Amino acid sequence: MLKGKSILLGITGSVAAYKAIDLIKGLKNEGASVSVIMTGASKHFVTTMSIEIAASPGPVVWDMFETRMAHIDRPRNADLFIIAPATANTIGKYACGIADNLLNAALLAFTGPVIIAPAMNWRMWQNPMVQKNMQQLASTGVITVGPETGPLACGEEGQGRMAGIETIIEAARKVFTPQDLAGEQVLVTAGPTREYIDPVRYISNRSSGKMGYALAKAARRRGAAVTLITGPSAVNVPDGVETVRVETASEMQQAVMQRIGDSSLFIMCAAVADFAPEATLPEKAEKSAIPSLKLRLNPDILLETSRLAKRPFTVGFSAETGHNIARAKKKMSDKKADMFIFNDVTKEGAGFDSETNEVTMIDGHGETALPCMPKEEVAAAILDRITSLKRGG
Ligand code: CTP
After folding, report:
1. Model confidence over 97-112: pLDDT tens digits?
2. Does residue 147 have a cis peptide bond before it, meaning omega lies within 30 degrees of 0?
């Protein structure tokens, strides 16, 4: 998304200024080039030399009169302007059209997308003047990320921490992503479920949740409102995605049935445990009791949704051992899904907990085999196919 993009980064006088170094590294890892304008105050918190070493190409500029025309040249050559961290002072001046330093002048000379990541004490953030300035900027299309709530540099807790680096970078990726899922309400399930034998032991499977989380993140990036219903998973929740945490298949079933009516796209990616103990014991059982444990079949959530009078466009998953596409096709037909994603978990790079996946997409028009790719790219390809099918072909 950011490959080849030219990003202008403004750093202002907040204690979070040192985090700009990681932001620069992250943006460059994505293939973007980063040029930097600092304010005089920001140099109290991070040195121009550190930023220059991290950023290159081109020197870090901050003085309006030492670097003639930088307030025009730098923005003219940029695809995106990010201010991180953004202080109340810089925000206020930007909202009022003031250009009394190089950064604020460059902001006024920039005609492309702007992302600001505010960072300040929570009282300053809550101040009505700051809030009014933020509204003013939002009304002109400026994108805001954060601030987040947590411990602040002053020793207090509250909303004022600069958004995380990945959050800022994700906002940048979104700027360059066509918003072809805007207006869609996407419901995604992910991860395994846990079926408790007793308070200590459970039946589950090897699903990590990575594929489902990648789908939720990709759909959000394309402008959809996304709800993620997830079994236990260590993956970070994508920004801007409403997340519902469940443990058992029954909880997942309930969460899906509550929300599916409001959805326009349903992606059942979770690896629901097929069996559960007939009853969960209230106390830890003797191990001798386990081999004779009685199991029952769990509800089949996808099958249940197929019986609804009105169901959104529905996608199921079929993780098999071996190239058993016929089995995936049968599941797709039995569960009346519009599309199924097949993968052979025994293949190198396509198994559980892997960062990559190799899938075949099955729909009413046939099969499309994709090469082994990072799960984020697989998710993008699946959403491409879904949007094309929803448009009729
Ligand atoms: N699924 C579901 N509820 C279940 C089991 C599966 O909603 N109790 C969904 C999965 O999320 C997936 C699809 O059904 O989208 C196929 O799941 P899979 O486990 O491959 O198939 P099963 O129907 O469970 O058949 P089997 O385990 O016998 O292969």
Report:
1. 999 999 999 999 999 9
2. yes
Q: How far apart are CA 256 and CA 141, in angstroms?
A: 34
Whether 154 is catalytic is yes
Q: Which of residues 138, 157, 175 is at a domain's end?
A: 175
From 94, 109, 101, select the one nearest 42 (Cα to Cα): 101
The pLDDT tens digits of the residues spanning 40-52 come to: 999 999 999 999 9
**6 Cβ partners below 8 Å, 6+ apart?**
32, 33, 35, 77, 78, 79, 80
Gap from CA of 253 to ligand 1 centroid (Å) = 13
Ligand 1: which residue has its CA nearest to atom 3? 300
CA-CA distance, 322 to 346, in Å (whole number)?
7
Report the CATH number that the domain containing residue 330 is assigned in CATH. 3.40.50.10300
Instruction: Output the residue whose Cα is nearest ligand 1's atom 25.
Output: 331
**Residue 163 DSSP label:** P
Query: Could you list the residue range(s) of the whole structural domain that residue 77 is in?
Result: 6-175
pTM of the model: 0.91
